[in-house]
Amino acid sequence: KLKVLFVDDETDFCLLMKNFFTKKNYDVSLAYTLKDGLDQLEQIKPDILFLDNNLPDGKGWEHVDLIVEKNPHLRLYLASAHYKGEVIFADYPQVTVWEKPLSMTLLHSNF
Fold first, then answer.
1. Measured in whole angstroms, how far is the alpha carbon of residue 2 from the centre of its chain?
2. Per-residue pLDDT, 84
3. Measured between alpha carbons, how far is 63 from 2 in angstroms, rounded to an integer?
4. Exposure check for the chain: N or C terminus, fewer CB within 10 A?
5. 8 A C-beta contact, residue 1 and residue 27
């Protein structure tokens, strides 16, 4: 079973994602703060990480370099309502940036 971790302070979004990925047979973990997310990342070693940028205790995307360095096989999805399509993190092929809200069509076509 692939493990996926969502780090996002929007609880409704996390529960929707948990429902979607659980039905697709993923092992899903949720974190609502940056600190909790980074702690869980080390503990559970997920295959996939969804990381929000604007979290109550910091900017998630400021940690991308370190996350990728420590977890080279991790597929990292960055999602933000403030992302407008600019090219960022181009040096990391395992990083995908999506604008929120995420559509079910987008999720179904990728997972």
1. 14
2. 79
3. 23
4. N
5. yes
Q: How far apart are CA 97 and CA 111, in angstroms?
A: 15
**CA dihedral sign, ordered 87, 103, 38, 33:** positive
Q: How far apart, in Å, do the first and last CA atoms of the chain sit?
A: 13
Domain 3-110: what homologous superfamily?
A: Response regulator (3.40.50.2300)
Single-letter amino acid, residue 111: F
The structure tokens listed for 68 are: 């990728």
65 to 11, 58, 101, 102, 103: CA distances (angstroms): 26, 15, 24, 24, 27
User: Mean pLDDT, to the nearest integer, of 5-18?
Assistant: 97
- What digits encode the pLDDT tens for the residues 19-78? 999 999 999 999 999 999 999 999 999 999 999 999 999 999 999 999 999 999 999 999
